[in-house]
Design brief:
Radius of gyration of chain A: 27 Å
Number of strands of chain A: 12
Helix content of chain A: 40-55%
Largest interface: A-B, 72 and 72 residues
Order of helices and strands of chain A: HHHHEHEHEHEEHEHEHEHEHEHEE
Shape of chain A: elongated
Number of helices of chain A: 13
Strand order of the largest sheet of chain A: 2-1-3-4-5-11
Largest sheet of chain A: 6 strands, parallel
Oligomer: homodimer
Chain lengths: 349, 349
DNA sequence: AAAGTTCATGCAACCGTGTGCAAGGCATTT
DNA sequence: AAATGCCTTGCACACGGTTGCATGAACTTT
């Protein structure tokens, strides 16, 4: 009637079982399987063989309890789909981290900063309950007391991509992008193309990265001897529709600008679509430059000129540093990189 | 000179510490913090207070060792960026799972089926080392012996989205989409729009889902009394460029078809872009229907008519069933859903 | 042949928590 | 007053590993 629920349950075997079979103590088994030099080759091989035959695997909880190492890393990252742009951008970054950790045979627990239902801090939980050995943080909005908790916990961690707001990060290991330079480069491309009046479509938030991009925009203007006009900076969300609408809102006023710096690719694509519908030629009439180099920019026409951040490299470096910290227990902020972005010249800008 | 590396390390406190402070045995502390009815309210409150004051948190390894529950679930899913289309599609699904698990305060270890560097099976590792309580599988290519391992391990799991190939899944809990119906609906939209000769752009793989979509395409044709022409089925990868190139390859032959069923949104968008460049009007001259309802289709013009799979619902149901299995230990294949997709009518088809 | 080394292994404690069973205190019943 | 029962708590062992130290055997050295 009702299936015997243990029907398929494998008998779990432990090092003690192996010890019994091999006629040795369980310490010897433990040492053998961990390749301790204390044990003779002959015994080791015999025991490894037995373990193999029985498909033995260590119980990770027991091992963690004893060694104080879990072999898993927490990755704190935002919703991939709160804004669509995020998914395009973050995917590759998280992917890169997964690979970097895999290389060191580390597992990863992906987590939001806090539980959406209980509002409990996942960061705190993972650390204090000792579920993880280290932390990779990619998130614009870590609460100050979580930072404080991370700091006092002494757990190895690396911060990527988002500069912590309202919290001193001079003592952390981090890897950021120099968005001032990014914004400046993007704007300069437009200026070099002859633009004199550049619309800046930025995200309506206080995130440091967007402030920096706008800052770069201003610097480039200044360098070109063009007065900064606050009217030309428009804030919205990081979405296609914002770019589209921003242009449509100005359809009677299209001569008021000759270039567009969109601080996100998707916004740029929205703007381009609007321009196309209005019969404006990109880049002939108006030049457009995006930011982030999501895949999309490669596909749609005109192909998007944009600012690239080396995401795979970010991920690789972050993992390497974290693993180093795990091994050496040396938490000093040795890696504090602010990487220059790269301009990708395509058709739109 | 060199920082004292223990400077910030918090002294870990255990239930024994609390026991000592409270003047009770550690069993009493354990029972109190787990709200056992055996302990008097007065004692419980006193102990909870002390635990709170000390910021006590259970050591999860110790707890797992004792209870045989880790409170974490493995999610097996593919590269998000091997093909760009994947990232668009899978992101929301994985996101939904993360939310569903979070609701039950479960952590999740995201993993590829096997380690890219060591080729070791992550599925096996996670299960046999007892790192997880359950498994959510979203992957087209799980090796047969991994399925076998999952089966004999008796671990609770739910399969989503991809039907296992070359392995009987009648005993599993699963949630798939009826892609035959999806393909049929998509094709029917084109037929109803007056198309008589429909190009089918499919992925060049044996994945069941693509075979099913093509199958649905054939059925719809048959129902409309149109002979199936193998020449009209073209296989490539699931990318924008494939759709683009497929049309460009036929630019001298554009009258040979009047509709396009692309088995992935990105392919459809590529085709539409090519048609636009060739001066062909969509949908007036040629109708195009995509598949998957990635966000992209909402943005680009003409807006893409496409087949929607309710990904959030998939994720939610899968989590619910898994959690039920975790609690009840009842592994019977009670949930075997094949969900009908939904047609999204927009502009292109 | 006795003493000293080296090597391989076992003993026992420990990591932090859960839990069956026994025991003690106290109130109730006979 | 003794017997009974309930409520609360502690003891001791279990979970499955790791590791410092002691031990005994085999091998050198004097």
């Amino acid at each position: 009637m009702c299936m015997n629920q243990n029907e398929t349950d494998k008998q779990t075997i432990t090092i003690k079982d192996i010890a019994r079979i091999a006629g040795v103590s369980h310490s010897t088994v433990s040492r053998s399987l961990n390749d301790s030099p204390l044990i003779s080759e002959r015994t080791k091989n015999r025991i490894k063989k037995i373990a193999d035959d029985l498909n033995f695997a260590f119980n990770s909880s027991a091992q963690s309890l004893s060694t104080r190492r879990t072999g898993t890393i927490g990755i704190i990252y935002p919703e991939l789909y709160d804004t669509f742009g995020n998914s395009l951008y973050m995917g590759l970054l998280v992917q890169g981290l997964r690979h970097g950790l895999e290389k060191a045979s580390l597992d990863s627990i992906g987590s939001f900063p806090r539980n959406h239902y209980t509002a409990e801090s996942n960061i705190r939980k993972l650390i204090s309950r000792k579920k993880i050995d280290g932390l990779l943080v990619i998130h614009p909005e870590i609460p100050v007391d979580d930072w404080e908790f991370i700091r006092t916990s002494g757990i190895p961690f690396v911060v990527l991509h988002f500069k912590p707001r309202s919290f001193d990060y001079s003592w952390m290991n981090y890897l950021f992008t120099d968005h001032v330079t990014g914004g400046r480069m993007a704007t300069k491309v437009l200026l070099d193309g002859g633009c004199r009046s550049i619309l800046c479509l930025r995200e309506d938030s206080d995130e440091i990265q967007f402030n920096e991009r706008t800052e770069g925009y201003k610097i480039a203007l200044q360098e070109a001897g063009i007065a900064y006009d606050p009217q030309l900076v428009v804030a919205g969300d990081c979405a296609f529709d914002f770019g589209f609408q921003a242009i449509m809102d100005r359809k009677n006023n299209l001569t008021s600008f000759d270039g567009i710096f969109a601080e996100a690719d998707l916004v740029a694509l929205g703007a381009i679509e609007a321009l196309r519908e209005l019969g404006v030629k990109v880049p002939d009439d108006i030049r457009v430059v995006g930011y982030d180099d999501t895949e999309l920019g490669r596909y749609f026409r005109p192909k998007l000129t944009t600012v690239h951040q080396p995401r795979e490299e970010h991920a690789r470096l972050a993992c390497e540093r974290l693993i180093e910290m795990l091994d050496s227990r040396d938490m000093r902020p040795i890696m504090q990189k602010v990487i220059k972005p790269l301009m990708i010249y395509r058709e739109s800008g």
